[in-house]
Amino acid sequence: MDHGEYVSKIGNFRKVLVPMDMLVKLYDLPDSKNLRDKLTQAGVSLRRALAPEKHKVIAWVRENFSDYWASEADVAFSREPVSCFIAVKDGGIIGFACHDVTCRNFFGPTGIDPKAQKGGVGTALLLACLEDMKHAGYGYAIIGGVGPADYYAKAVGAVAIEGSDVGIYRGLLGASRFAD
Predict the structure, then answer these.
(1) Spatial CB neighbours of 83, under 8 Å, sequence gap ≥ 6
(2) 159-160 sheet: strands from edge to edge
(3) Would you say 158 and 24 are in contact if contact means Cβ atoms under 8 Å apart?
(4) pTM for the whole structure
(5) 22-178, what's its fold?
(6) Which CA distances in Å does 51 have to 84, 90, 137?
(7) pLDDT in tens, 53-78
(8) E strand or H helix at 56
């Protein structure tokens, strides 16, 4: 595994996404209540991670995604309150999402176990973070280094930020994707 790329290590696939940043209007987010209720009925708990869980969350992110994302998730635990949200089912993590880690006002990273994808977990975590950012006083949020642009456009009305194909990650050590 080339840890110089942001990729998923879950399952038998390797997906490297083309980076760009996207902008989201936080004052125009969709209502998340029905989705949260649906997940609760399916036995999924969605919540802010707790400080004593830091080692478990960071290990899960590192094992399933990358050292880079684990580093960013680690920073989320230094925020007050913690800026990492997790989805838990049957006592295990099935997804995570962070905000305000590499830069203020940035959403990400986020990752979902492929077995839990397509069930709303990723969207619920996205909305939890964006709602948290809205409550912190932001009017807009930046989704950094986006791969699935169509998903973010549909889920929260995100629009591409022109000329942001490398963005803040330019020159990231060991990451050929963000080379100068």
Answers:
(1) 76, 98, 99, 100, 101, 129, 132
(2) 44-48, 84-89, 92-99, 106-112, 140-143, 22-25, 159-160
(3) yes
(4) 0.87
(5) Aminopeptidase (3.40.630)
(6) 10, 20, 23
(7) 999 999 999 999 999 999 999 999 99
(8) helix 54-64
